[in-house]
Amino acid sequence: MINKIKELKITWGSAIRVIVGSVVAVYLIWRVVIITFGSGEFGPDTWVRFLITGLVIGGIYALIAIGYTLVYGILFMINFAHGEVMMLGTFAGYFVLEALSAMPAPGTDANINFLNAQPVLSILLTFLAGAGVSALAGYLLEKIAYRPLRKAPRLIPLISAIGASIFLQNAAQLLFGPQRRQYINPDLLWRGQGWMIPVSGKSVMLTYTGGFSFVLSILLMIGLFILVRKTKLGKSMRAVAENKQAAALMGIDVDSVISKTFIISGILAGSAGVMWGIHNGLFNHYVGFLPGIKAFTAAVMGGIGNIPGAMIGGMLLGLMESLGPALLGLDFQLKDVIAFAILIFVLIIRPSGILGEALTEEKV
Predict the structure, then answer these.
(1) What is the mean pLDDT of the chain?
(2) How many domains in the chain?
């Protein structure tokens, strides 16, 4: 009898979720039709602009969200300092570009700097610096702030993560100053320039920085997915996430796997930080705070601990943030409100996320 009642509750819960989701989908489609063909406020070209913006920012959110979900899958904790790890990568990339722009290119005109003489190499060095600094920051965070608390109650590492976040923010402010800085891009990726796409008789620009950031984020996500699924390290990570004690008995160095997980999450966060700087330009020591919180929202929305879920959640959050104000008839300054309202909505309707939270017996 009790089992039948539980099954009935599950059935009703699924039915309610389907009904609510269908109502929301119908309402959004109705809004698109009314706004596009009724009021004429936004034409098809405007929707394409929103779509491009959402995909670009969604790719960056997805990279940061993967860092959250990797750490959660291994340690069952939320690394709230992950946004600051991204911020350090943004600063590292900025200083490399500054140095390359001030360096004359050997064997060329003295007026041409190294940045524009060797743009591909310059971008590669920038990403190596950003990813390397963030990887080191992630490794040191795990070593200093989290490893000594591994056997403590879950609330203790969470408090440590918040403290690490505040520490890194203030350290960056003291070291680099509170002023806003601007990325110097090579001419190959100059902001405000791009490919023109014809849409309904009008031209929509896909910026070079936007296209580059989106493609690179997709490649990094594919690379991570292959690493986790096909490599020895990936198998070790999945084994440690499933059961640390059993993994240790099988000869896996658990501490090493956890450290490498933080390094990988740092590489992704640093790459996202450099992409953020290249695409948006302006940044300061708070650059990682809001994207970090939104990426956490994306990870929860996709299913915390679920890597494909983090990818999908990041992309969806970017699209909702870009399209949401227009669909709902709200001011575009409220896009951040929409992002966090989505988190509340998902937690109420489907707490496990879109693809479901990755659970193990140890966690249950």
Answers:
(1) 84
(2) 1
pLDDT at 13: 59
Task: Take residue 115 and report the two structure tokens written for it.
Answer: 């940045």
Residues with Cβ within 8 Å of residue 88, at least 6 apart in sequence: 133, 134, 137, 168, 172, 270, 273
- Note the pLDDT tens digit of each residue in 315-350: 988 988 888 787 777 777 788 887 778 777 777 777
CATH number at residue 83: 1.10.3470
DSSP state of 105: P
Higher confidence at residue 69 or residue 44?
69
The span from the CA of 319 to the CA of 326, in Å, is 11
pLDDT of 4 strictly over 70: no
* 90 contacts: CB under 8 Å, gap ≥ 6: 130, 273, 274, 276, 277, 283, 287, 288
Q: What is the pLDDT of residues 183-232, one digit of tens each?
A: 998 888 888 888 888 887 788 888 899 999 999 999 999 999 899 888 99
Structural domain range at position 245: 42-349
Q: How far apart are CA 264 and CA 223, in angstroms?
A: 11
Q: Is residue 9 part of a domain?
A: no
Query: How much is the pTM?
Result: 0.87
| Strand-strand pairing, 194-199 and 202-207 | antiparallel
Q: Which helix (H) or strand (E) holds 207?
A: strand 202-207
pLDDT (0 to 100) of residue 328: 75
* The residue count for the chain: 364
Cα(345)–Cα(230) distance, integer angstroms? 35
Token readout for 42 is 């936004």
d(CA 106, CA 110): 8
Contact in structure between 63 and 291 (CB atoms under 8 Å): no
The burial class, CB within 10 Å (0-12 / 13-18 / 19+), for 75 is buried
DSSP one-letter string for 321-363: HHHHHHHHT--GGGHHHHHHHHHHHHHHH-TT-SS-----TTT
Instruction: Flag whether 364 is in a domain.
Output: no
3-state DSSP helix/strand/coil % of the chain, to nearest 5: 75, 5, 20
